[in-house]
């Protein structure tokens, strides 16, 4: 038995809509990836960062570990984020607006949300 209020997307929502001809599709040739679990958001972030290498390389961060943090692989850092020069970041990491990354921090395969502080 399912818990009270449990909804099955395919059986409880999509099938009835399709039966009433109220379900529509949208075809796209653009990049798309389904996210079914929270962990998939990391995979998708990595896919987007990889795509940016080809479509928007100016969005990816770079650093040498001397004047700025060491950047490994595909990385995005929002312009308002503050990253300590001794931090080592990447691959596949995104740092959002106003985030603060402290001295010696090591970030791999992660998404740092707005206003977060990593020490």
TrEMBL record:
InterPro entries on file: GMPPB_C, Mannose-1P_guanyltransferase, Trimer_LpxA-like_sf
> Where does the Mannose-1-phosphate guanyltransferase C-terminal domain lie?
71-118
Membrane spanning stretches: none
Which PANTHER family does the record match to this protein? SUGAR-1-PHOSPHATE GUANYL TRANSFERASE
Protein name (database record): GMP1
Q: Which organism is it from?
A: Brachypodium distachyon
